[in-house]
Request: fold
Amino acid sequence: MHEASLAGGVLRLVEDAALRERFTRLLALRLEAGQLAGVDVRALRFALEALAPGTLLDGAHIEIEEPAGQAWCLTCSQTVALAQRGDACPACGGFQLHPTGGAELRVLDMQVADD
Ligand SMILES: [Zn+2]
Reply:
């Protein structure tokens, strides 16, 4: 499952940060999964919860934001809203769109404790 490997990636990222920044407890984790990122947020949350016991994710409050997609339309030379990949430009109906926002999964911030 796609989301399970994404959750594994998020955990690795948190563990790397813990080593680097020497924290031992994660209080809260804020992720961004853009609407164009192709991530099923419910499945991702489930995968993170399944992965959590015994890891730094255990007991952490996990928040997942889902920013709307944005794309640059080559035809109208402007940024337009894009609900999903493959949709037409809402302004001109064209398909010359390059996603510019809401297209990735990333960690926004972490709240940590070092006790
Ligand atoms: Zn357009």
